[in-house]
Amino acid sequence: MPEAASLTEIAPAKINLALHVRERMPDGYHRIETLFAFAEDGDRLSVSPSDRLTLTLSGPFATGLSAGADNLVLKAAEALRSAAGVSAGAALHLEKNLPVASGIGGGSADAAAALRLLARFWRANLPLEPIAATLGADVPACLHGRTVRGEGRGDRLVPVAPGRLAGMPLLLINPLVPVPTGPVFAAWDGVDRGALRQGDPLSVALAGRNDLQPPAEATAPVIARLTEWLRERRGVLLARMSGSGATCFALFDEASALRGAADEAAREWPDFWTLATRVGV
Predict the structure, then answer these.
(1) Average pLDDT per block of 10 residues along the chain, 281 residues long
(2) Which residues contact 281 (CB under 8 A, 6 or more apart)?
(3) Which of 41, 43, 110, 138 is catalytic?
(4) I need a labelling partner for 245 at 20 to 30 A (CA). Which of 58, 171, 217, 273 fits?
(5) Catalytic site includes residue 14
(6) Which part of the chain has CATH 3.30.70.890?
(7) What's the topology of domain 162-278?
(8) CATH top-level class for 7-158?
(9) CA–CA distance from 12 to each of 2, 29, 164, 264, 266 (Å)?
(10) Is 138 an active-site residue?
């Protein structure tokens, strides 16, 4: 199977515009209803020919990350290579621009990008969704990479037209404090506060909530202060925490409002990570 020349794939930041936890299931997982959207920017994964399958890392959040077999990028690569019957290698390089374990799907987005990238590189013509489903609950949505509704564990996907969300100015801020996913889910109070609505995604998001935000705020109170600060910015349509935290996001009605808020954030929260971007189309 011939290889392509060097290729690059973006692993965009994943945003949970709303996340409703409906129940804790007997297997320990939670049944959720969520609305995924994706930023235009994120990590960057590239590949070039090699006899072996390897991974190197760079970028502001590469420190402390493993480039070994436990990295989801290599797990995705090995899964695809096995499913496609590929014997060739690949030299993968991940530019890690997104904070790790921060509620914006960094590892899952990287795994999904690896599947898309290597399917092109190895010219592997096979469905990627079954492979993505074996790698983590968020990987199928990240493989889709567009506005989508997630149910079940978040891996049962229903595509939706982005509508007004497409290209909307988006600000992400992470306070760079650890908020482990498992304990946040475990601390959910068990109260089913109702289903996620159907319809226009922006309207659904505005009417929704993130049921993981209260337990995350108990672990990292700065999340509450940050989301309140975001809500007070000019032109904000929605401000909320994404996923299990600690990244918070704000959607803006125009680009000038986003630029103003990003400038204010740099002054108000100089030690936090910020990304001014747009919702992908």
Answers:
(1) 75 98 94 98 98 97 95 98 97 97 94 98 97 96 97 95 96 96 95 97 98 98 98 98 98 98 98 98 77
(2) 146, 162, 166, 167
(3) 138
(4) 58
(5) yes
(6) 162-278
(7) Alpha-Beta Plaits (3.30.70)
(8) alpha beta
(9) 28, 25, 19, 24, 22
(10) yes
